[in-house]
Amino acid sequence: MRWIKENSLALTFLVLFLLAVAGQAVAGLFHYNDEQTAQGGEPVSLWSYVASSSYAVNVAENWQSEYLQFFLFIVLTVWLVQKGSPESKEPGRAGRESDEEQRVGRHADPDSPRWARAKGARLWLFSNSLGLVMGLIFLLSWLAQSVAGHAAYNAQRLSGLRDPVTWGSYVTSGEFWDRSLQNWQSELLAVLSMVVLSIYLRQRGSPESKPVGAPHASTGVGADR
Question: What are 64-119's pLDDT values in tens digits?
Fold first, then answer.
């Protein structure tokens, strides 16, 4: 029970994620079969739909936009600030910070991760590991979206008696970028809203918010704590 309590946030989001994926599969199946029937085709089973390019592209296009959001936010907040936002470092503290501030090398604590006490490539890799992994997941999900989308797009073209297109033609097409940009703009708007609204609004007890009584101009996660 203690382990569940200490990891309750991650476990809750994992359960919600699995429910959402399952719900998307069921709802997508109904929509797909409705279109199939309207076009004179045969409905498919749930497992056939989940294994299809139609389902894969819908999942992948959302994943890549989410991880693009995280990657950009992680990297840009190293150098850019927003006065008054708990999502930002304080003005004047932009940059990678000193080894002492980051507690690396000879400044590492006894309980610091082992690679925080390393030097050279290992320290660089660990120092940038979060952004690198988020960026890699974005690229892999973007690739998955392009491959699944290419297959789904060609299946749609063939059903309309049109010639299929190459992968290169697909990733430069309006279809592909319409799918991508409609997700990117919503994620970027969400980040912008969080950064700006958290200056003036509060959520008591949330680490994503400043303390209720903190001045609007106070900046940073640890502001006035």
Answer: 889 999 999 999 999 998 988 888 888 888 888 888 888 888 888 888 898 888 88
Q: How far apart are CA 179 and CA 66, in angstroms?
A: 13
Q: Cα 104 vs. chain centroid, distance in angstroms?
A: 28
Q: Which of 17, 198, 201 is nearest to 9 (CA)?
A: 17
Which residues lie closer than 8 Å to 66 by C-beta, 6 or more apart?
187
Global pTM reads 0.82
Q: What Rg, from alpha-carbon coordinates, does the chain have?
A: 23
Residue written as tokens 């680490």? Answer: 207
Q: 3-61, pLDDT tens digit by residue?
A: 999 889 899 999 999 999 999 999 989 988 998 888 777 888 999 999 888 888 888 88
